[in-house]
Amino acid sequence: MRYHTLIFDLDGTLLDYRKTEDAALYITYQALINENLPSNLLPLYREINEAVWRDLEKGLIDPPKLKTQRFRKLFRALAITGDPEAFSTRYLEELGKGGYLLPGAIEVLEQCNGKVRMVSITNGLEKVQKSRIALSGIGRFFESVIISEEVGYAKPDPRIFYHLIHEMGLSGPEGILMIGDGLTSDIQGGINAKIDTCWVNPENFQSNGLEPTFVISRIDELAETIGLC
Ligand SMILES: [Mg+2]
User: What pLDDT is attached to residue 56?
Assistant: First the structure.
């Protein structure tokens, strides 16, 4: 067998982050902001949030700053009067309630279960991710879940992968496959750590010069693609 260990990304790969994010944002906005819901709230928030996460991946900001920075920017862009810190606290609480799975996620974990070692590395906030993993029921498949906030490194920093290799008692990157939807985090991270990669690319995006070992459009193509079934 070519791979003995599979590392799964969580959001956009196994868990439905969009659904979680949409619900958390609407609920928090309606609870804390005494104004009508702006029609561009979601797309604008996504744009701002993606930009702050890119900054985190580049090491330009740290998780505590990220949490409130995105709402500070959102409030400014929409001319909302409110407390970004209180908004962030409530939003994180709501986010932790979103354990929605993407189609095919459980099936692929069941297919691989018992045949390889399975772990997860997620760029996310510790409390939020732990709660969502528990709600989704996928925690039982993983020998270990590494959360960037907890270890202090985020994908694509190779140190988060070295941390895992060390924790699992492995000798190096051979025989490990990183599976994820994030080009700048999962795929770049795998390449940085010399780990093979499988890019989950449902929207058929360009790979911007990066060369994943495999590209699949749905997570349920994984087992067959890597010869696990
Ligand atoms: Mg992802």
Answer: 86
